[in-house]
Amino acid sequence: MASFNIVVLPGDGIGPEVAAAGVQALKTIGEVFGHSFNFEEKRIGGIAIDTDNNPYPEDTDRACLAADAVLLGAVGGPKWDLGKMRPEQGLLAVRKSLGLFANLRPMDVKASQVHRSPLRAEVVQGADLLIVRELTGGLYFGKQTRTETTATDECVYTVAEVERVARVAFDAARKRRNKVTSVDKANVIETSRLWRETVIRLHKEEYSDVELEHALVDSMAMHLVTRPTTFDVIVTENMFGDILSDLASVLPGSIGLLGSASLGATGKGLYEPIHGSAPDIAGKDLANPVGTLKSVAMMLRFSLNLTQEADALDAAIDAVVESGFVTRDIGGTASGSAVSKAISDKIRETA
Ligand code: NAI
Ligand code: MG
């Protein structure tokens, strides 16, 4: 019997509600497939500011560093908006401490949900893509200068940084539809030329079985809206990924449906829904747990190497969403906890 140590960081607002759904799914997977998951709950974000005067307490850090994987709910809320310390600092701190350099955001549009998309059904139906965003380099981490009249932001990428995130993309593509679209601005920017050269060389040396194409970020923004079904894995640098992943995230019609994984060198990962703490619905059992459960499926796949279990969870989520037993944000009347339970029941029924 395999045993895994999972740190759970519920955070604020609806964070604890969706994190509980994630724990329930893992417990069910454990029962059905014969694994044991040990859960350790720690504080992050606003609640940690309140109790520890630190959005990412040392005790939380120690637990995360020792864990096999980390599940996060969400952080933040109006209560902490005016304070000196920000809950979001906890997010940056955990990403940095765990060395998480690749952010993965899958997006697919379910047939039953296609009418909620801002795009026409015939354009978006069947879209199923994964954006891999470099998370620790580029413009967001470069040197900044400022005078009264001039500001600069430095953008730096090394071959090693490009290689490691490209590897994540190629590896993921092999488990999907075997296609990578690398996005850059190589017609203008030097870091993008290094990006493209590195991706081409790595592809030739180690991943020639994967189909590779290149796209410029500006035309990619158009393609994501006009023909989202033609992409599988999309890999890009930090800022381009920030923008493109937000663009892609609105295609399914609710951010409550989407999960994410942030991966480091050792296979350790942080798994969280892409939405925030949703203070407007917190404590009402209205939060859609699907984004968190999709994140848990990625945890099983990428950090714990439990592929069959990940497939079972993904299939159960899809079946329940397709059945129409869904929360209010996607047109249903079910409570978040009822959806979570239905998905666990589905795993038991089909596994
Ligand atoms: P939000 O994502 O929390 O909410 C936006 C809208 O989507 C709200 O109407 C909310 O009710 C709805 N929504 C979000 N998740 C949902 C779910 N699972 N089920 C059903 N409906 C859902 O973004 P907002 O309102 O801009 O930010 C609220 C707080 O969350 C802020 O303090 C913000 O800083 C923080 N935040 C935290 C993030 C994180 O922890 N990774 C990411 C984004 C925002
Ligand atoms: Mg963003």
TrEMBL record:
Keyword Signal: no
Cofactor: binding comment: Binds 1 Mg(2+) or Mn(2+) ion per subunit.
Swiss-Prot/TrEMBL catalytic activity: (2R,3S)-3-isopropylmalate + NAD(+) = 4-methyl-2-oxopentanoate + CO2 + NADH
Binding site for substrate: 95, 105, 133, 218
Pathway(s): Amino-acid biosynthesis; L-leucine biosynthesis; L-leucine from 3-methyl-2-oxobutanoate: step 3/4
Record's subcellular location: Cytoplasm
Record-annotated site: Important for catalysis: 140, 185
Molecular function terms, GO-annotated: 3-isopropylmalate dehydrogenase activity; magnesium ion binding; NAD binding
Binding site for NAD(+): 276-288
Domain Isopropylmalate dehydrogenase-like: from-to ranges: 5-343
Gene Ontology cellular-component terms listed: cytosol
E.C. numbers: 1.1.1.85
Assigned keywords, A-Z: Amino-acid biosynthesis, Branched-chain amino acid biosynthesis, Cytoplasm, Leucine biosynthesis, Magnesium, Manganese, Metal-binding, NAD, Oxidoreductase
GO annotation, biological process: L-leucine biosynthetic process
Required cofactor names: Mn(2+); Mg(2+)
Residues that bind Mg(2+): 218, 242, 246
Family classification: Belongs to the isocitrate and isopropylmalate dehydrogenases family. LeuB type 1 subfamily.
Protein name: 3-isopropylmalate dehydrogenase
Organism annotation: Asticcacaulis biprosthecium C19
